[in-house]
Amino acid sequence: MTHLLHIDCPDEPGLVFRITQVLFEHGFNIISNQEFVDQSTQYFFMRTAFAGDRPPQVVVDQLRQRLSPATTVRLATAGKRPIVLMATKESHCLGDLLLRHADGELNADIQAVISNHAVLEPLVNRFDIPFHHVPATHDRAAHERGVLALLEQYRPDYLVLAKYMRILSPEFVARYPFRILNIHHSFLPAFVGARPYHQAFERGVKIIGATAHAVTNDLDTGPIIAQDVLPVTHTHTAASMAQAGRDIEKLVLARALKLLLEERVFFHHNRTVVFE
Q1: Which structural domain, as residue segments, surrounds residue 52?
Q2: Helix, coil or strand: residue 42
Q3: Which of 26, 204, 214, 264 is the most buried (most CB within 10 A)?
Q4: Same domain for 70 and 147?
Q5: Distance between CA 10 and CA 38 in Å, rounded?
Q6: Distance CA 21, CA 63 (A)
Q7: Residue 79: what pLDDT?
Q8: How many whole angstroms separate alpha carbon 46 and alpha carbon 160?
Q9: Which residues are designated catalytic?
Q10: Do 122 and 221 sit in the same domain of this protein?
Q11: Would the pTM count as exceeding 0.85?
């Protein structure tokens, strides 16, 4: 079985040697290793895939003893991760993820789809995945209690907002820190908030894009995981920009989710280190 080791800490000499020495001492084989030092903060990040017959927790215990108290050590097992998708009315991102899941492209097990509208239920039913309609009301707290009650049943590793067009409360976000993935139909930090294609059209931009980011308490400003762009011209209207943007939105969301599922993303302050 392959295990994934995440380590981040203030940089110091000899870290790679000391970490890999622990793996060697306990008979583990390193399959791949990536490391990076952020020169602006002198902070060290390392992702290591390793395999062996012994329980991997011994590595974590040893590293916590040998490395500084400021070190974060996290262990994951390579394999399918439980996720829940959340959507509203738009089908392109949700449909793309459902297709990828059906084709075995996602290293995930989609446990359910939760939506504040019933529009997408026929689509989800085609894939034999549970669909839950939690109606949107003016009482956001009541709506979120209904969603959280469902999530307690499924206990997902990640929530994926596949065009879930509601702002989540700080209390909700705190339940899943850096575990809620959102797709924003703009190349952030430009055109934050609602109607970004209309904003882009009014500004006369020559490229439009999409941004997948972790959800935080501040609207559309969470750490960015993946982005991409495509060119547009003066002939595009706001509507045709939105239509063109749907393709890039679903590709960026799928790529960001893949990176998360493969444990390739480190969150550091409001930035990310992504080992591709």
Answers
A1: 2-77
A2: coil
A3: 214
A4: no
A5: 10
A6: 10
A7: 84
A8: 25
A9: 220
A10: yes
A11: yes
- Cα separation, 181 vs 162, in Å, equals 8
> Which H, E and C letters describe 188-211, residue by residue?
CCCCCCCCHHHHHHHHCCCEEEEE
Q: With helix as H, strand as E and coil as C, how does 80-109 read? A: CEEEEEEECCCCHHHHHHHHHHHCCCCCEE
Amino acid, single-letter form, for residue 205:
V
Q: What's the DSSP call for residue 163?
A: S
| Coil, helix or strand at residue 11 | coil
Query: Would you give per-residue pLDDT tens digits along the chain (276 residues)?
Result: 899 999 999 999 999 999 999 999 999 999 999 999 999 999 999 999 999 989 999 999 999 999 999 999 999 988 899 999 999 999 999 999 999 999 999 999 999 999 999 999 999 999 999 999 999 877 888 999 999 999 999 999 999 999 998 889 999 999 999 999 999 877 655 666 667 777 777 778 778 888 999 999 887 789 999 999 888 888 888 788 778 788 899 999 999 999 999 999 999 989 999 999
User: Structurally, how many domains does the chain consist of?
Assistant: 2
Question: The tokens 């209207």 sit on which residue?
Answer: 237
Tokens 């996290």 map to which residue? Answer: 74
Instruction: Verify that 146 and 28 share a domain, yes or no.
Output: no
The domain spanning residue 70 has which CATH number?
Answer: 3.30.70.260
Gap between the Cα atoms of 169 and 142, Å rounded: 11
- Residue with structure tokens 């994926």? 160
Give the relative orientation of helices 238-261 and 196-203 as an angle to the nearest 10 degrees.
120
Which alpha helices (H) appear in 12-76, and where do they start and end?
Answer: 15-25, 57-66
Assess whether 211 and 258 both reside in one domain.
yes
Same domain as 188, residue 172: yes
Please indicate, yes or no, whether residues 68 and 124 belong to a single structural domain of this protein.
no
Q: Which of 33, 55, 77 is the last residue of a domain?
A: 77
What's the rounded Cα separation, in Å, for the pair 20 and 14?
10
